Hints:
By secondary structure, the protein is of the alpha/beta class.
Amino acid sequence: MTNSPKIICVSSGKGGVGKTSFSVNMACCLARQKQKVLLVDGDLGLANVDVLLGLNVRHTLRETIDEERPLSSILVEIEPGFKVLPASSGVPEMANISYEEQAFLINALENIIDRFDYVLVDSAAGIGDAVLWFNNWADNNIIILSPDPTAMTDAYALIKVLFHRFGKNRFHLLINNVKSKKEGRQVFNNMKNVLKKFLQISPDYLGAMPQDSAVVRAIRSQKPFLEISPDSRASRAVMEISSQILLM
């Protein structure tokens, strides 16, 4: 995989469904399986990856766009094989960068990604421009939703926009915060039926993440739950899901 990294965009229609926590821990998990992973904070105006990792960030993607700072100079190494491109927080104009700025950023990314095996983009929630063009750039699209009906409705809306605007028709669905594997499968089947009925799309089931207090503890301690609770239900689920991602 030396010169052709897998680009995976992790998105959700609704905020608060655990997208960034999943992205951070999946990047960590893949790195521990000897993969070289770049995690891009794609929430350009309300960055969260640095918060979940307890990073004191000096430079962000904003400087690449505003000052043409090389991306290689803002990379932060978390552990061997796992690097992060941090974004800015509380900068509203970054949420709506121009077409020219989008093209510049994608070109800058294309120039550094060949040193990685996997590029994970943790996008913003919703259907904003940056969410859409990161998803369009990616080879694979993971959509995270929870059993909450609003999360399902918003996930459908995001998939619908990506389908109609870019012709995207393959999506990997991850159900987060479930009480059981059975509930995860039920939520997936409900979404699958809706997508088949209205968009003629058959999504792939990536798996389910369980409700787990280890996740909350990890967020509060600003470390991956894979690191502080490696035997937790959440950690086992991420390791299981990583085996599917390695086959993408």
